[in-house]
Every structure is written in C-alpha cells, then in structure tokens.
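User: For my dataset I need records formatted as: sequence, then structure tokens, nothing else. Please produce one.
Assistant:
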Amino acid sequence: MRVLILSTTTGYQLRAFNDAAETLGIELAFATNHCDRLEDPWQDQAVPVKFHEEDRSLNAILRAARKKPLSGVIAVGDRPVILAARVTEALGLPGNPPDAARASASKLLTREALDRAGLPVPWFFQVPVGTDPREVLGRMEAEGRQFPCVIKPIAMAGSRGVMRADGPVALLAAFERLRALLGRPDVRVQRDAALGFALIEGYIPGDEFALEGVVDRGELQAFALFDKPDPLEGPFFEETIYVTPSRLAPAAQGRVIHTVGAACRAIGLRHGPVHAEVRVNDDGVYVLEVAARPIGGLCARTLRFVDRGQVEKKVRIPDLTPLEGVLLRHATGEPAADYQREPSAAGVMMTPVPRRGMFKRVDGLEQARAIAGIDDIVITAKPDQMLVPLPEGASYPGFIFARGETARQVEAALREAYRTLSWVVERPVELL
C-alpha cells in the first residue's frame, strides 16, 4: 500500500503520519509546496506542487504515480484538499468530487450549499475587500440586517481574520483590519483569489463544538464530538480547549451528528476525513464549516482508537491506534467502522498568544507536566519568534494535552497546567 500525503511544508502532522505508516507497513509519498528549484530540500522525495497552479501540480503528481502507483490520498490542511480531490478523481481512487472539495474550502460556497439544502444558516453576503465599508453598512441597512454581525475571510483557517462587530463603528474598523490582513505579503503569496473577498454574516449565539470523523461512501461516521468550554463570543474567536467525550445531552449530540452528516451530503463530500465546527442554540444546530481534512495542528494527538474486534474479545490492554493510522487505513479502502475511540476522556489546550512580542521562553514546564492528568506539553514557538495574537495571528505557541476518567477532570487539568506556565515575551523593537 502506498498513500500520498498532500500538505504544506510546515504541516505539524507529517511526522505523525510517518510514524503511523511505519507501524502499518504503508509506504508514504508526499506532495508539498516546497521550492521546485531546489533538489529535494527536505529529503522526503516530495513532488513539488503549487496549490494555485492546479493543472500543473496535478500533472506532476500523475507523472510520479505512473512510476509508483498510489493506493490512496490524504490532504492535510485546507489548501491541499482541492488538489487531493482532483488526484483521486484522475486515478479512480476513493475521494471527494473536486467541486465538493472546493466548496468545503470556501466559507461562502459552504454557506450557499447549506442554504440550498434547507439547513440553518445566518444571513450572509460576500463583498470584495476593496469595497468602501460604508457601502457594506448601506447594504445591511437596505436589507434590514441587524447587528451583531461577523466579518471573516472566505478562505482562512483557525479563526484568523474572524471578527465580531456589534455596531457600525465596529464594522468599519473590522473591515479595515481585515483588508490590511489580506494585503499582507504572507497572505498574498498564497495567490488564492478567494482571499480578495470578505464574508459578512449574522452572528450566531450559542455553544460551540467540533466534530471529527470520516465520510465513507457518502455517509458520515463520527469519531469524536469535542466540547469547547470557553465561550467564543468575540470580538475575536481564539480557540483554546477541546475536550471529549462531550458533556452535551445524548439527544443533542445525535442532532449535531445528524446535521453535520446532512451538511456533508449538501456539500457533496464522499470519502475521507472531516473536521466540522458547529454552534448549538435554541433554534437548532448551525454548521459553521465542514473541512475535508483532519483536525489541524497537533490536536489530533487527543484521538486514539481501539479495534472493535479487540473490544469484543475483551482484550485487557487493547492496542491503541492514532487518528493518522485510522485515516491511512481508510484511505486505502478499509472501513473506519472497525475502530472506536478509546474509553478515556482526552483534551487539548491550544495555548493563546499572551501578547504581541518576541517569544523567549516558558517557565514552569516541569511543574505543569507533573500535574495529574497532563499527558504532554509541546511548545511550538521558537526562541525570538514574533508572536502575533488573533485576528492577525496564524498559529498557537504551544499545546497542552491531558487524559482522565472524565471530561471534567481533563478540563481541570488543562486549566491548572496553563495557570502554572509563565510566558516570557519581550516587547518588540519598533523600527522608525
């Protein structure tokens, strides 16, 4: 078996996929957006691709696949999902239709698909980022749209650029802030036409949850439903804690899974990983996004699975398989239904950026790691790296992992560990 991983060169999960593939005896191939003018700079024999040049990149992958055939394809991150869908279509492998992958990567196309399917959506409209924001206010007034509203980029992940506005003054400021973000060199270099637009939509109150699973022959199989216990009410939407199993009532969990499944069908997803974000309130379940890729960053470490056959045989200490292992098996055609999440509760805290500045170090790591329930703490920020908070920031400086008998115990351990850490961040030197 040989599986192609499409990713950016900075993907956190590549090492985890490597480890899982070695355990399973699966060979990995890579296609990444590294420089095509250098000879294998990362020593991984990856096919160099450019996600904004789909045809050229597709042909490069197909040429490589003719020499060494592929058994499956997995996209890691939002940008590779469209190219991954085109590869599976061209090779006749299980995957998503390209149009469905394109819709999953666009907040606008997702909203339109859910609306056509009759699923709950807020009011929404798209405008070019070059629009005079006063025209946006005029349109809202003409259409009878009420505040609060949310402004966000069409194609960015991790809450980057997402802002709540409670009135006209706040919306004007948020629009200018988003326009500045989308004009930054590190954003423009992506050459994604969707980043020339902003989505304006009604704010959805309620509690937020994340669902991880796969689509198998068009049907959703949920692996885990994560609570997000910290309120995400704005003005920015920095995620912090994910913990599973959810403490939502079983009937409500069923409604979330049912609605996400309906959203997958509305978008047209057929096969592969799914990461969905939803809000739940008295009016129902609102799907915020359905991404055709696994959970991002290092958060996948929270998910470990056991073989249902071992559970049925009552194996005392069943083997644990990481999410990446299940996804590799699913990509090669094995049913994901053979696996279920381990019984214990698990969670992760994506540590917020404490303030803008130059990262130096984190004190208190040994004490935090010694807290009962803490599984690991990983600091991903590098010394002298500039830390930038949301909405402009693009990454978290660290991750805290915990396990326990209950979700409440896991959440408490994560919070205690975070309180124990002391982040040393120096004020940046401003150039005149």
